[in-house]
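Consortium newsletter contribution from the modelling node. Members have asked for a concrete example of what our holo predictions look like. Here is one, prepared for the 3-phosphoglyceric acid complex that several groups have been discussing at recent meetings.
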Amino acid sequence: MSQVSGFHRERIRSVLSSSLLMPVITIDHPADAVPLCQALFDGGISVMEITLRTEHGLKAIKNVREALPQAWVGAGTVTCLSQYRQAEDAGAQFIVTPGVTEALLDFALTSEAPLLPGVSTASELMLGYGLGYREFKFFPAEVAGGIAALKALRGPFPDAVFCPTGGIRRDMARDYLASGNVQTVGGSWLTPAEVVANKDWAKITEIARGSLADVS
Ligand code: 3PG
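And here is the predicted structure:
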């Protein structure tokens, strides 16, 4: 059976070890993408997940990749193979899915951009585990059992590493990172909708810097 390549695992490990926090970004206005991501970068965040939840996601990935070549820019909320391919074409350096399908897990074994597959149960994790995946998104973290669930998963899967997202807020990130199998914590709290709507980029930088200080 084919397995995740060493190159892919190395890339995902590099992405996760580059930042304790990963903003989950949804772009409502195309012009916001670059200044928003620049503001996060200025606040110390060098890994970003830009979701395909709006029609602007792919263009945002392309523009942010060009504007911030020093950052890791991934595509999030990828749920099918055509989105996976489109995200790669847009320049996404990694792909994040909210859950797993066998088709996505298989496709990602030979894709250009590596996959961070989303799981919320031991069974879903095992689908990826058998193919050599060891890094996972844990989603939706808070309703799927939060820190207690992550600690429980450490027993049967001691070498699995997680990026939990979903319902996590700034004051919870530190405890998640102390779970023992969490490398990076993700969420949308780093880009509050009203702050983005006001184009208050200085505030975004302040939130990023403060959130990182909380967990460092
Ligand atoms: C995700 O896709 O990771 C989540 O939507 C982020 O969850 P949050 O908005 O509750 O932080």
